[in-house]
Write a structure and sequence with these properties.
The complex is a heterodimer of chains A (290) and B (277). With 290 residues, chain A is of the alpha/beta class. Chain A is built from twelve helices and ten strands. In chain A, the strands form two sheets. A six-stranded mixed β-sheet of chain A has the order 6-7-8-3-9-10, with helices on both faces. In chain A, strands 2-1-4-5 form a four-stranded antiparallel β-sheet, with helices on one face. The longest helix of chain A has 16 residues, at 182-197. Chain B has helices at 43-50, 71-80, 97-107, 112-125, 141-153, 171-187, 199-202, 222-227, 229-234, 241-251, 263-276, and strands at residues 4-12, 18-27, 32-36, 58-63, 66-67, 81-84, 159-163, 191-195, 207-212, 215-220. In chain B, strand 1 (4-12) and strand 2 form a beta hairpin. Chain B starts with a strand and ends with a helix. The chains are: A alpha/beta (290), B alpha/beta (277).
């Protein structure tokens, strides 16, 4: 499913009144099926408002642009938002705060029961077991536990299981690694990559961590004051250091070093992932391509 | 005498499992200390012990001569050690910045005239004087966190504890907060204890404690700590990315010196290497 957003405008204060601060200002972007798409921007730049539109949590107002996701036209009054939300899973910042049920099983099953009331108990159980196993938890050990007995990292996994249990084709994540320790972050990103190879076709990831964007995203967009300033590969969007800094952002480690090296006439021209960066530097310094 | 001294401190929330186990550590006045550890390692509880938000079941916590064992002195400890938490939105209480900063001093009964001075001092220390009459609601995350720090500074604490205070901020916000804290440490001699997941924040510290499973498993300067790669990884932590890259380059024959921890240093060393070729 392709995501097509055209001239999307939104303000939190009543839009009819003048002077209401605009959270999104004529945002247009197309995200193709299969992309691992990053979104960066300062706090308050409109990133979260934008992604909340993608599963209809915030609805497009009349004459304020359009969103099409695959067959779904989100501006259409007849749009089946329930069906849409089954296909577009949303993981918020601190998803563990959304846990509520008495057992892990019930928590993960909730979305499924909601979206697929016709599903048999057995089928539900199978799907829940799959989802919990997929996020790296031991199903038989955790299913009867209260989600609140689990550690922070485990809670977050349960929350993700509750989203992927409907097998969404598009997974939208708003700052999913904030507050995780380095190992937890690594595991989480590995999980995302795994899901991206399975039923999740498109990942849209909002992050303040520039290293995550340069390492994992095929393309990314920079948001500023409700507008998209630049869209492109990590190489493109991290090309202009001064602009990034003026926007409250920074360079990923690889881009930072490349930039400093270029002043000394070294141009490794990596794609900014760590492994490619190391390869290119070795060519430069040890010589001889392998 | 150290400013903060923990001797054989143990603590449990449920009286069954100790989340802090027999920890001893001391912090000198003016030091910049980093405490790192994975989620659930007990580092936040350790931070709460430092300002007597929780009290040890065993062992002793002494801060600037006050003992947490004496109920009357607990309040003095809390005045000496200010804590800034993770979420700025949970820490701001008033609808105007200056009221928010005044909240602490008012609470401990500081005279009205002096409160004005304290607000001036605290807001200028974090570079937020201009926002004195603004509403915190309209500030960015980094600005809110600076106001939270100002609220703590208004009590003139000797120690500032940051409990993952930059985790929710964008890169600019993080930079703002860290540079304010660094300046306070340098110019006002405020002792800083930074509890964090960001390995690049650790590099700046004078001393690092690594907490795992409620115990301090490693301590030393950043370069000493990050030499122990395997132990660091076993604790669910990582080296700073620049250090990882430097390591990989060395292993593949690039002649870099050992002990590179920051991207600035790595870039410098690579440029220097280039000029030698």
């Amino acid at each position: 499913m392709r995501i097509e957003v055209k001239d999307l405008t939104y303000s939190y204060e009543q839009s009819s009144k003048k002077g209401g601060q605009v959270a999104l200002d004529k945002v247009s972007i197309t995200i193709e099926e299969g992309e691992f798409f990053g979104i960066i921007g300062q706090t308050g730049s409109g990133k979260s408002t934008f992604v909340q539109h993608l599963n209809g949590l915030i609805k497009v107002e009349k004459d304020r642009g359009s969103i099409k996701i695959g067959e779904f036209d989100l501006t259409d009054k007849k749009c089946d938002f329930k069906a849409l939300r089954k296909k577009v899973g949303m993981v918020f910042q601190y998803p563990e705060h959304q846990l509520f049920a008495e057992t892990v099983f019930e928590d993960v099953a909730f979305g499924l029961k909601n979206f697929a009331p016709e599903m048999s108990e057995r089928e539900i159980e199978e799907r829940v077991e799959q989802a919990i196993t997929l996020v790296g938890l031991d199903y038989s050990k955790v299913k009867e536990k209260s989600p609140f007995e689990l550690s922070g990292g485990q809670k977050r996994r349960v929350a993700i299981a509750g989203v992927i249990v409907t097998k969404p084709e598009i997974l939208v994540l708003d700052e999913p690694v904030a507050g995780l320790d380095p190992a937890g972050k690594k595991d989480f990103l590995a999980l995302l990559k795994k899901l991206h190879k399975m039923f999740v076709k498109t990942v849209v990831l909002v992050s303040h961590d520039m290293n995550v964007i340069s390492e994992h995203c095929s393309r990314a967009a920079i948001f500023s004051a409700g507008k998209i300033l630049t869209v492109g590969t990590p190489k493109d969007i991290f090309a202009n250091e001064d602009e990034l800094i003026s926007l409250g952002l920074s360079l990923p480690t690889t881009a930072f070093i490349e930039k400093r090296l270029s002043h000394s006439g070294i141009n490794p021209k990596s794609n900014l992932t760590v492994s490619d960066f190391i390869d290119k530097l070795c060519e430069e310094f040890v010589g001889g391509k392998r | 005498m150290p400013l903060i001294e923990l001797k054989n401190v143990s603590f449990s929330y449920d009286k069954k499992i100790d989340v802090v186990k027999n920890v001893s550590l001391s912090v000198e006045e003016g030091e910049y200390v980093a405490i790192i550890g994975h989620n659930g390692s007990g580092k936040s509880t350790l931070a709460k012990l430092l300002n007597a938000l929780v009290l040890p079941d065993e062992g002793s916590v002494t801060v600037d001569g006050f003992s947490s064992a004496d109920k009357k002195q607990v309040f003095d400890i809390r005045k000496t050690v200010g804590v800034v938490f993770q979420n700025p939105d949970n820490q701001l209480v008033a609808s105007i910045v200056e009221d928010d900063v005044a909240f602490g001093p008012e609470n401990v009964g500081i005279k009205r005239e002096e409160i004005g001075e304290r607000i001036n001092f605290a807001l200028s220390a974090v570079g937020m004087e201009k926002f004195r009459r603004s509403s915190p609601m309209h500030l960015s995350g980094g600005q809110k966190q600076r106001i939270a720090i100002a609220g703590v500074l208004a009590l003139k604490p000797k120690v500032l504890v940051l409990d993952e205070s930059t985790a929710m901020l964008d890169p600019q916000g993080r930079k703002e907060v860290l540079s304010v804290v660094e300046r306070l440490n340098r110019t006002q001699k405020v002792t800083v204890i930074n509890v964090t997941h960001y390995m690049d924040e650790v590099v700046r510290a004078d001393k690092v404690y690594v907490v795992n499973d409620g115990e301090i498993v490693l301590s030393g300067t950043p370069s000493e700590i990050f030499k122990k790669k395997e132990e660091i990884k076993a604790c669910g932590l990582e080296l700073p990315l620049a250090a990882e890259i430097a390591d990989a380059l060395i292993q593949r024959g690039v002649k870099l010196p050992e002990g590179i921890l920051t991207e600035e240093r790595l870039a410098e060393e690579l440029c220097a290497l280039k000029s030698k070729i």
